[in-house]
Amino acid sequence: MELTTILGCIVGVIAVVGAMIFKKISFTVFLNPAAFFVIFVGTVATILNSFPGKNLKNIGTLFKILFTKQKLISEEEIIKLMIGLALEARKEGLLALEGKLETIDDAFIKKGLRMVIDGMTEEDISDILGVEISAMQERHELNASIFSSAGMYAPTLGVLGAVFGLIAAMGHINDTALMSEAIAAAFIATILGIFTGYVLWNPFAKKLKVKSQTEVQLKSMAVEGILSIQSGDSPVIVQEKLLSMLSETDQAKMLNELNQGNQSNQG
What we know:
The protein is mainly α. The chain has helices spanning 3-22, 33-50, 53-56, 59-67, 75-92, 107-117, 122-170, 176-186, 188-230, 235-243, 248-266. The mean pLDDT is 91.
């Protein structure tokens, strides 16, 4: 599970509940079906009007991505894999890598290595894998924009709900108690609109973008390793190229792990 998303939702609810407790606001004000209806049904309507059906069919998968951890090959695994493949290529030649393909689970890396084995040029490999990464980025950006749109429209729908509530309150203008109660309930839609827009939908869009950036970085690192192997670089050069794509802190940590692994193998 993606604990940060779950914790974020829980803390967001706690913030609202806490504010209501401190302000001594009764929770019964949320017993307002009209407010929930205009916000959630209205938000769905705005999304349906904004995107074609083919872009919305994977909405369930997007929620799954938000609430579960990505099952991606790690930076450490990429570096260790590329070093091992570079060593194999230097000893046995690039064609020897074909026997290693079945042991690799990552389809993107396997595709790149297959092109190396097939004798494609560095430029062609770089172009093809680069186009795949760019296409993935565009898909991810479109997916994130679904939540961004919901985050933009929900607060405005909250204002619409408040207007409906005030109109209803005017119907009790001769009864001060009922009118004040109706006015208080009118702003529940505004609270729901702001909460869902700025605590849920916009942050969800941001998280999808961050996860996309992580995947792009990993694929870019894999491409660098594949091209380095195709060029006949030594394992040391491959290692240094890939380490250079990390921050200084991560470089030091990764280098330490690699050195420990080498010592264990020698032992």
